[in-house]
């Protein structure tokens, strides 16, 4: 599901090959593509892409009708998926996404006031008439709630908050100055021009989440950005597109999580830590403050430092350093 309306019903593979300058066997030219999705979500009517061998297991199981990929990776695709060979599969895929969803690369600025006797809103609020706000929700001053927003019951939204392209559950607290649902930091330079990736996804904030002041949570590119129930984010935290954070997590101030990383349940992250993109952080993981996580972490891991290593290894390294210094 996407908040963004498809502007065209389908493209045939001949049209797609022309747009991307891809060679295509003529027997496939009339095959129709009705949507664009990730490898693991694609159906027999969809186009997907495969550009990194780390996703080879997903590629082997994909149900997509066609996949834009490189020659070397194409062998991993099932026989039911038509390979479209490209030197720049990700960029070509986003060209097709933009054909279906041209508005997904832009943030909407068309907002209108809405009144509801069951909610409280402060001064200078702008609430798009197409959004939904649940009963007993309290909204501070100077808040902007754009289209494609659904906010549940008994939420508290602080002042100077901007929300768009988001589904927010019940009993959620969002403190002042936070921005939710804007387009993520995704682009490539090609032929001297910046190509911004479309962001079709949403921000999904589940029940009883608490989000501090001046946080930024980007909407997903193809999938959603998700904050699991009862998780707590401190102030000044950056959550990039497609990140998925589990339930009952606690993230201290000034942390950043790069795009498409998955964080498990009951994870504790110390202040000023950074987690690289496309990683998997297991359940019950503890990450010490000011750490830099650059690789996957198994369930129950406790790490610290840059690059982050086990607490025991970090202590040994620190003791060794102290001995040398003395």
Question: What features would you describe in this structure?
Answer:
The chain has 2 domains: 11-105, Udp-n-acetylmuramoylalanyl-d-glutamate--2,6- Diaminopimelate Ligase, Chain: A, domain 1, CATH 3.40.1390.10; 120-313, Hexapeptide repeat proteins (UDP N-Acetylglucosamine Acyltransferase, domain 1, 3 Solenoid), CATH 2.160.10.10. The chain is built from 4 helices and 36 strands. The strands form 6 sheets. Strands 7-10-13-16-21-24-27-30-33-35-36 form an 11-stranded mixed β-sheet. The model has no long low-confidence stretch (mean pLDDT 92). The chain is flat and about 65 Å long. It is an alpha/beta fold and 326 residues long. It starts with 10 loop residues before the first strand and ends with a helix.
From the structure above, extract its key features.
single chain, alpha/beta, Udp-n-acetylmuramoylalanyl-d-glutamate--2,6- Diaminopimelate Ligase, Chain: A, domain 1, UDP N-Acetylglucosamine Acyltransferase, domain 1, 2 domains, eleven-stranded mixed β-sheet, nine-stranded parallel β-sheet, 4 helices, 27% strand
In percent, how helical is the residue content? 10-25%
Looking at CATH, which topology of the largest domain would you report?
UDP N-Acetylglucosamine Acyltransferase, domain 1
CATH architecture label of the largest domain: 3 Solenoid
Total of domains: 2
- Which spans have pLDDT < 50 for at least 5 consecutive residues? none
**Count of helical stretches:** 4
- Report mean pLDDT, rounded to a whole number: 92
Principal-axes shape call: flat
């Amino acid at each position: 599901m996407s908040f963004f309306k498809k502007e065209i019903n389908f493209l045939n593979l001949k049209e797609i090959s022309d747009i991307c300058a891809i060679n295509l066997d003529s027997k496939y030219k009339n095959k129709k593509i009705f949507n664009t999705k990730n490898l693991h979500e694609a159906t027999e009517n969809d186009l997907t892409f495969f550009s990194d061998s780390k996703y080879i297991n997903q590629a082997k199981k994909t149900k997509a009708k066609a996949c834009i990929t490189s020659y070397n990776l194409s062998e991993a695709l099932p026989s039911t998926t038509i390979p479209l060979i490209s030197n720049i599969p990700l960029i070509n895929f986003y060209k097709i996404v933009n054909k279906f969803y041209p508005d997904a690369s832009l943030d909407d600025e068309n907002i209108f006031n809405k009144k509801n006797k069951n909610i409280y809103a402060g001064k200078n609020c702008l609430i798009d008439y197409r959004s939904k706000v649940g009963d007993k929700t309290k909204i501070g001053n100077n808040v902007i709630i754009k289209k494609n927003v659904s906010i549940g019951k008994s939420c508290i939204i602080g002042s100077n908050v901007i929300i768009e392209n988001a589904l927010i559950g019940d009993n959620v607290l969002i403190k002042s100055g936070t921005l939710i649902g804007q387009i993520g930091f995704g682009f490539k330079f090609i032929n001297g021009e910046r190509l911004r990736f479309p962001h079709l996804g949403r921000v999904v904030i589940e029940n009883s989440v608490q989000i501090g002041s001046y946080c930024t949570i980007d909407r997903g590119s193809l999938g959603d950005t998700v904050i699991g129930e009862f998780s707590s984010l401190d102030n000044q935290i950056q959550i990039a597109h497609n990140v998925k954070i589990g339930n009952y997590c606690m993230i201290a101030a000034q942390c950043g999580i790069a795009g498409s990383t998955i964080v498990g349940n009951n994870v504790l992250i110390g202040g000023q830590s950074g987690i690289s993109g496309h990683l998997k952080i297991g359940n019950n993981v503890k990450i010490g403050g000011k750490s830099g996580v650059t690789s996957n972490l198994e369930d129950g891991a406790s790490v610290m430092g840059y690059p982050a290593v086990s607490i025991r290894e970090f202590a040994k390294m620190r003791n060794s350093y102290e001995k040398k210094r003395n």
